[in-house]
Amino acid sequence: MTTRGLDGVSVGVVGGGVGGLSAAAHLADEGAEVTLYERHERVGGVAGRLERDGFRFDTGPSWYLMPDVFERFFERFGHEPSDFYELERLDPHYRVFWDDGDRVDVPADPDAAAGLFESYEEGAGDAFRRYLDDAETAYEVGMDRFVLPGRSRLRDYLSTDVLAGGRKLDLLDTLDDHVRSYVEHPKLRQLLQYTLVFLGGSPYNTPALYQLMSHVDFGLGVYYPLGGMYEVIEAIESVATERGADVHTGVAVTGVEPESDGIAVELGGDRYVHDRVVCNAPPEHVERELLPDGAVPRLGGYWDRRTYGPSAYLLYLGVEGSLDGFAHHTLALPTDWKPHFDAIFDDPAWPEDPTVYVNVPSRTDPSVAPDGHEAVVTLVPLAPGLDDGPDRRAAFRDRVLDAVASYTGTDLRDRIVVEESACVSEFAERFDRPGGSALGLAHTATQTGPLRPGPRVRGVDRLYYVGGSSNPGIGVPMCLLSGEHCADAVADDVAGGSLDRIPTLGR
């Protein structure tokens, strides 16, 4: 183990989401004395677990993508994923039902997927192969030149190799415009754009470089960790504690106070001073609620100008009987989904014709439901900030279940034996997400790469950000990398003997 001078350095980590756990593991491995504070009884943040009457639900992420990033994380600590959980590759990746009665299974094999594309549009099979080749290039360039090195500042992009890499990427078009240059059929465009949901974006506001997500889908594969995604969270926590991090749950941080020789973490009436502090809470919440007013210099209205990824309406359902018509991942898509995206990003409203994602992990893993039952999670992306009072939620529940029945031909309502829900209020109140966003800052052109908050909190020495609203961005793999980058920033600052003091212009 190489400690890079962190022996004896006290680091407090505020929040035990994926980013906070990853940072804790890396920092403890470097020799730091790490104390992690998590206000809930379990770590994981939005990536939680709900257990009711023999049913087990992942409350947050349910897609295991980019397996190479998980392997990289565990290998760093002398492990591999199989030390903690068993993976199963899904085929089909997902099933799609459209509102016109059409249905397809999207296969894991790219050649079979090319055949599917060709069946909808002449020449689309070859166009799909070209698109995947370009997506692989975008992924390799993006990961090797930008994401893995942790380039979070504008000055990091001025080197020759980075500028050369950037020329290989489409940085100006939206993804929708870019996809249209390959295929015209609207359903095929949807199949190439759906993965943006994982990034909290829209095809109409997300840069074309995120075509790399199609390589994530078709090139790297879609997996499921038996037992559910929370098995992964517990594995990351195990690595952090194995390396020496001290994890405290059920403790709420009420303030973060810069001092002359460190940063104080306040827990109600208690106060603990650390040499450095890493915040896995949303940056806007940290700056508006935890830090002293004005501690981080920002241009007026900075946070009000940010674009947040969607919130979500979620139903966690224990359903009696078998759901043979559903795949592990099932999508119910309107043939014209632009009005739903408009209702999220342009004119916030409850969608009239919602796009519904249905996750049925018991199709792959019978352990998550009692015999003769299925565990079902439905998710509808929503605009953050919507009023989700009881009457509104009850009406929307009916709309969602109507949509599932209409698209798939299966009505769940009379078969539900367990039901829980979550919506805007839960994300705002339980996780301090601005506006109740489920994902954090969206990946728009002005909130990508160095235009997202980096690990160093400008204007506050010794304070750092980690997690989905910081660089590199949203998703469990990116949060794992965010923890690594944050630990690198701490180690570099300690080793350098001076702190990064780049002027803050409210980026």
Automatic annotation (TrEMBL):
GO biological processes: carotenoid biosynthetic process
Keyword Oxidoreductase among record annotations: yes
InterPro entries per UniProt: Amino_oxidase (IPR002937), Carotenoid/retinoid_OxRdtase (IPR014105), FAD/NAD-bd_sf (IPR036188)
Signal peptide: none
Keywords: Carotenoid biosynthesis, Oxidoreductase
NCBIfam families: crtI_fam (TIGR02734)
PANTHER family reported in the protein's UniProt record: PHYTOENE DESATURASE
Protein name: Phytoene desaturase family protein
Annotated source species: Halorubrum yunnanense
